[in-house]
Amino acid sequence: MAVSDSMASAAKSITATHSGHVKKTGKPVIELRDVWKVYRMGEVEVPALRGLTLTVREGEFVAIMGPSGSGKSTSMNMVGCLDVPTKGSVLLDGNDISTLQESDLAQIRGKKIGFIFQQFNLVMTLTALENVMLPMVFQGIPKEERVSKAESLLALVGLQDRINHRPSELSGGQQQRVAIARSLANDPQMILADEPTGNLDSTTGESVMSFLTDLNKKRGKTIVLVTHDEHVASHADRIEILKDGAVIKTKYNPNHKKAKVENA
Ligand code: ADP
Ligand code: MG
């Protein structure tokens, strides 16, 4: 009950015009320290990351840009603790993930991090509601609570009248909104999105971006987003530009200067 009440009020505030959330200096959620990732393809070594250093703090909205093959997706795999570095360290909430068992890491990841992908990655045989419920199954949430929470999350993204539709019965933009709802299932502190608007037209992409921006500004979610698109990246407070597996430039959004100063 309490959960669905708070979700319902969140649903209201996300469409309201007030901006209640004030940014504060956050503690580091994820830190990549001199991370190297070398893929081995037979005899050939492919270095995807070459000394990537990146800190993402609580409440930040960070965009990662860079040419194709520059290591953006590989860096997201590191930020999301889906993969381990060849060299260097990854700290999640200050803990080096190399000290954790894979089963513990999977549990932490499932609770703390929500993922959104370019291809939506919904389960095609499940309804929107069942897709959103799925991550809660792995966290052992009772069925009734899963249903009511999934309903609230779908309402939050404006899909309350599509809960029994399967992905094939939804538009690309609607599927991505289901994926956003799913990413929120376990109340993660951080949302990672790899080219979330890559398969959407610009108007639909803009509406997806406005959901993500609201999640950051109004609900304090930490967001890391990969994009090719300058306009999409302009929603972020900070843009990290990668080349050859390392950050070559950091740009701060001039429109977010106040937040940056408050953060300093
Ligand atoms: P981006 O997302 O910026 O396009 P990626 O992180 O996907 O870049 O890839 C970085 C480099 O690593 C590329 O040269 C790519 O071919 C290589 N790479 C990525 N994943 C693998 C993999 N699983 N096996 C081998 N090489 C890979
Ligand atoms: Mg990629």
Estimate the mean pLDDT confidence: 88
**What is the global morphology?**
globular
Strands side by side in the biggest sheet: 6-7-8-3-9-10
Q: Which band does the percent of strand residues land in?
A: 25-35%
Rg (C-alpha, Å): 18 Å
Sheet with most strands:
6 strands, mixed
Question: Counting H and I runs of at least 4 residues, what is the number of helices?
Answer: 9
Total number of beta strands: 10
Task: Write structural notes for this entry.
This protein has a single domain, classed as 3-Layer(aba) Sandwich (Rossmann fold), CATH 3.40.50. 36% of the residues lie in helices and 26% in strands. It contains 9 helices and 10 strands. The protein has helices at 2-15, 72-79, 102-112, 128-137, 143-156, 172-183, 202-217, 230-233, 257-263, and strands spanning 28-41, 44-57, 61-65, 87-92, 95-96, 113-117, 190-194, 222-226, 238-243, 246-252. The strands form 2 sheets. Strands 6-7-8-3-9-10 form a 6-stranded mixed β-sheet, sandwiched between helices. The N and C termini lie far apart (39 Å). The model is unreliable at 1-24 and 258-264 (pLDDT under 50). Bound molecules: adenosine-5'-diphosphate and magnesium ion. The site of adenosine-5'-diphosphate has 12 residues, from strand 1, strand 2 and helix 2.
